[in-house]
Structures are given as C-alpha cells and as structure tokens.
Amino acid sequence: MIKNREKTGIVLAGIAIGVIASLLVLFGNPVNMGFCIACFLRDISGALGLHTAGAVQYIRPEILGLVLGSFLMALLRKEFSPRGGSSPLTRFVLGFFVMIGCLMFLGCPFRMILRLAGGDLNALFGLLGFVCGILVGVFFLNRGYSLKRTYKLPVLEGAAFSIIQVVLLVLLVAAPAFIYFSEAGAGPGALHAPILISLAAGLIVGALAQWTRLCMVGGIRDLVLFREWKLLMGFLAILVSALICNLVLTAVKAGTFFTLGLEGQPVAHTDGLWNFLGMLLTGFGCVLLGGCPLRQLVLSGEGNTDSAIAVLGLAIGAAFAHNFGLASSAAGPTANGKVAVLIGIVVVAVIAVANTVQKKQA
Fold it and tell me: Any idea what DSSP says for residue 182?
C-alpha cells in the first residue's frame, strides 16, 4: 500500500512538473526549454561574468527557486541534513564533464525529455546515449565503485548554498552594473518568463523533486539494478504531461510548442553521433555522482555540500565551454567540443576505475 502511494505521488508530481515546464514556455522561456538545469546554470554563469557569450546571460529564477524549494521542503519534512566530505574535488571534476556532455547535446536529461515532448526527434539519439552511459556506470557500481562516506557538517555549512541563491535573487532584482543580461533578441538568454512566475515554478519543482526523490539517472539505474520502475515513472509522467500540454497550446495559441521532426528544432543540432556521445558522457558521469543535475540541486538544498560542489563543477564547466568554444549550437558541434567530450569520457572512465579498484583493495 505504501509503495502504491509513493508511485502515485511520483506520477502526480511528474504530471505537475511537465505542465509547469510547458507553461514556462508560454510565459516566455525558450521553446523546448521550459526548464533545463544545464542551460539555466550556463545562463547564470554568463550573468556573473564567468563567460562572455552575450546570447546566454541571465540569472534564472527557476534554479534559485528549485534549491530553495528543496531546502524548505527538507526543513518541513525534517530531512535537512548538512553533510559532505565524500571526494569533493572528484565530484567537481565529474560535474564539470557532465556539463561538457550536456552542452554537446544542448540540454540536460530534463531538457532531453522536454525536447521529446516538443517533437524534437534529435533527442532520441541523446536518450540512447544517456541510457548507454548509465549502463556503463552501473557496470562499475556492481563492482564496488564508491566515492567514500560523507560526514556530518555544521548547519551553516549545509545552508550556505541556499543562502547563495537568496543573494543571486537579490542581484537579479537589483540588476547592478556588474551583472550581465542578454539583450532583447540576442538569443535564449533574452527569453524568460516573468521573475515571480519563474521563481514560483522553481519553488514548486524543487519541493516536488525533494519530496519524491525524482531523478532520471536514478530511475534508469534502479530499473536496471532492482527492476524498480518507481522513479522512472516520474519522468515518463513529465514526458506525457508536457507532450499533451504542448499539443493543446499549439492548437489553442497556434504557436510552435510542438514541431515533430529533426530539422529546424529550437536550440538543437542534427548530428546524431555527437548527440549520442554527449549524453553518454552525461549519463556515465551522473551515475558516478549519484544523480542527475536536477537531483544534485535538490540534494544541495537538503544540505549536501558534495552535491553543491558538483553543481559548481557544472557551472564552471558551462563557463569553460563557452569561453573555449566547446558548446554546440544550431550549426552543430565544434571541433573543440568533440575533443572535450572524448577527453571527458576518458577522464570519467579513469575516475570510475580508480574508485572501483580502491574499493576492492580496501
């Protein structure tokens, strides 16, 4: 009975999140990018001046709200637990290369689902690569991969990342001269829903994700290891609800919320091989981290400083990608980006092997 209630809760949460993501596009977010952890962290990095790509600079309230929503829900459920110390530098490196994979594909696992819900068939190549990356990660999990235990930390340490989100919200509202914003018409960074709507959406998604433990990597991993569908059902619910919402909005608003095909998709490219390899790197790295980018943000709100370090790795990875021409565009992947993805796969594999061998020797 409890398991059935949990599954029902996860499905209902997934339906709500899918609808929210679609409505964010209606209110101004880029098409097929109602909610994307990788893209939004990239925009925040640009707003803080960590990269100078003028098309992708904006402090996204959805990310701030997601962390704060998780923080508040964790406090409410007495699950706020400051902890860390589990190979933080390794987690930073993994977060860095997960972002490189995401920006090769042009989206995180969350956006991959939203792209499918918008009719973007290029995301199928990404989904296949993502699953393959997770399977490689599961191979190492079965052989004892571990980044060691975490340790209890002071409350202020666990709350620091959530406090940073409040500071970023103040900077967004105050808009001082040292914060950068994409100019109107300049690109995805210039497209955004009103601040209060975006913040409310983030708070709801963060609270729901904390409550349900929603994680796409965890869903596929648990299906492979334990034949457990529970977490994956949440993302299937996101896909179905976002798809239905997009179809309804397209019919009612006569917009481009749903366009089936490969060509001409918003903020996407048609190179199937590199969509596959980018998400393979993402899936592999996320398994070693213990969760997808969405899950890392939620855990950060719960007081997990290791996840906060992984999120910083994601943010610096985004800045690095745009400063050195690693990120893809609608024109396709860059030569630098291809090299970076291959290097990332090797680095993540070395981390997996090293932390599996050490576990066996211990």
Answer: P
Residue 261 is given by DSSP the state B
* Residues contacting 315, CB < 8 A, separation 6+: 41, 44, 45, 50, 99
C-alpha separations of 155 from 74, 80, 152 in Å: 13, 9, 9
The C-alpha angle with vertex 344 and arms to 342 and 349, in degrees rounded to 5, equals: 100
Angle at which helix 109-117 crosses helix 293-301, to 10 degrees, equals 120
Q: From CA 241, how far away is CA 12, in angstroms rounded?
A: 10
Which tokens belong to 324? 């050195």
Burial call 87-116: b when 16+ CB within 10 Å, e when fewer: bbebbbbbbbbbbbbbbbbbbbbbbbbbbb
Q: SS3 helix, strand, coil % of the chain, rounded to 5?
A: 70, 0, 30
| 238/294 Cα distance (integer angstroms) | 14
3-state secondary structure of 354: helix
Q: Which residues contact 192 (CB under 8 A, 6 or more apart)?
A: 28, 29, 58, 60, 198
* Calpha distance 15→9 (Å, rounded): 10
The 8-class DSSP code of residue 49 comes to T
Report pLDDT digits (tens) over 224-269.
888 888 888 999 999 999 999 999 999 987 668 999 999 999 999 9
Copy the structure tokens of residue 270. Answer: 């048609």
Nearest residue to 277 (alpha-carbon basis) of 346, 341, 343: 341
Give residue-wise pLDDT tens across range 98-155.
Answer: 999 999 999 999 999 999 999 999 999 999 999 999 999 999 999 999 999 999 999 9
- Report yes or no: 54 and 186 within 8 Å, Cβ to Cβ: yes
Tokens, residue 291: 């969760």
